[in-house]
Every structure is written in C-alpha cells, then in structure tokens.
Amino acid sequence: MDHTVHIWNVWNQGNTTARVLKYHTAAVKDVRWSPHRPLLLSGGFDCSSRLVDVEEGKEISVFKEDQAVEVIKFNPSNSNIFLSGGSKGSLRLWDIRSGLATTEFHKSLGTILDIEFSADGKQFISSTDTTRSNISENSIIIWDILRQVPLSNQVYTEAFTCPCVRYHPYESSFIAQSNGNYIAIFSARPPFKLNRYRRFEGHGVWGFPVKCSFSLSGRELASGSSDGCIYFYDYKSSKFLRKIEAFKEACTYVAYHPVIPNVIASCGWTGEVTVFE
C-alpha cells in the first residue's frame, strides 16, 4: 500500500531487509521473480507493470495499461513473456524484450482475480469477479493462448467467485479457492469437469483474497484462512491434516519454498509476513 516492493533476507535475522524498490506511484498488488534471472516484475494500481534488475536496483522496463494491474504471471515455457490481468477485465500477454503487449484476450469480464499458466505454457486459467456478467459462465475460463479463444467458460457454475486458481504440479487437474469457503477440484483436460465428490473444507474465505499452494511433491495443499491460520490438506484424500496459527487476522497467502520442502511463507491482512520451518 505504500507503493514499495520489499525484498527480504529470510535467513538473516540481523538484517532482514535486502532491498526496497520505490518505482511504483500507487499501491503494489502483485510481484513475481523471473524464473531464470535476478529480475523482479511487479504490478499495481498505477496502471503499470515494472521490471527491475534486483542486483543493481535499476528499473529496466515499464509496461503501461489502461487499468490497475491486479495479477501477473511469467509464462513457464518462456520467461520473456508474462501475462497480466487487471481491474477492467483485460488479459494481456507482454514481451519484455520489446516492451509491448503481443496478445489481448477479450471477454467483457469483471476484475481479474487470479491467473495460472499450464506447465507447458500453452493454456492459462483466469478467475474473474463476474458481477458484470453471468457468474455461472465466466467466473473461471480456460484459454488457448495460440488461438486466443476460451476453451471453456462454463467450468464452475456455482454462484461464488474464486480468488485463487492453481494447477497441480504433476497431475492433470487444477483447484480453485471458492468464496463458498472450500477449494474445488477440476480436471485439467476437456471438458474441465468439476469433481463433485471431492473438495477441501475447514478453512474460511468469507470474501478475503485467500490464496492456496501445492507442496513441491503435490501431495499436500496449504491454504490461508479468514481465521488467521494455515490449513494443510492431503491432496489425494482431501482430508484435513493440521493447521498452524499464523496471524490474529486473516491469512491471505501461503507459498511453499521452491527448493526446501519443509519451509512455508505466509502473509496476513495487516501486512505481516511469517516464515515457518
């Protein structure tokens, strides 16, 4: 909210702040590390995404839009390409080499809540606040990137928006965090059917932008919760395993360490970040 991006030393308790980036002119909504280089991409309410060289602390490129940038993701098969979703419902593919948007996906959507690439980078999922359109048709859409068309827009027909969508790291499935206070499971192959016999329940969403993440092995699923706890579920059985109290107010994001399997980071509604080992 203070327009900055903070980079933290997780393991150095004496000097936790590694660098503070002050390039945005409004609140920052999302940040992503480049998969292969020490570059950081951030998007925010100043209607721009900004690419920064972290080692030098220098801004490399600014990608301007006509909407507040809500969420950004790098294409896993090409780190020169990223996808942005914004407050006006536009989805754009950008090339960081040219600084230009190469593709735009139109569907008269509400605010983009989350996006997620498939592992091969050929498809992506968008989750949308569908207050301006039919909630049973457009809350979750599967897009074909090359053809620039939706493969399905009737994936999730229940009357809830979904603040988070995630592909399973190995299986042909994806999940969606629902404001119905559960996580739904879907097939990642056409016709992308909802699994009506399995869901992850126990945590609360209640309108907060609560995110969830898979463990490195894909065997566990961790979710934030409106009660400030992190909830862990077994993916195969959907059974609740345990919970950890992380914050007094809502826990909005959890992420597994990309290399160390027993480390998880979480952030809270009041602006705190906590790392558990």
From TrEMBL:
Translation initiation factor beta propellor-like domain boundaries: 16-145
Matching InterPro entries: TIF_beta_prop-like, WD40/YVTN_repeat-like_dom_sf, WD40_repeat_dom_sf, WD40_rpt, WD_repeat_protein
Listed Pfam families: eIF2A, WD40
Keyword tags: WD repeat
WD repeats: 21-62, 62-104
PROSITE patterns, sorted: WD_REPEATS_2 (PS50082), WD_REPEATS_REGION (PS50294)
Highest taxon in the source lineage: Eukaryota
Protein name: Translation initiation factor beta propellor-like domain-containing protein
Organism: Brachypodium distachyon (Purple false brome)
Lineage: Eukaryota, Viridiplantae, Streptophyta, Embryophyta, Tracheophyta
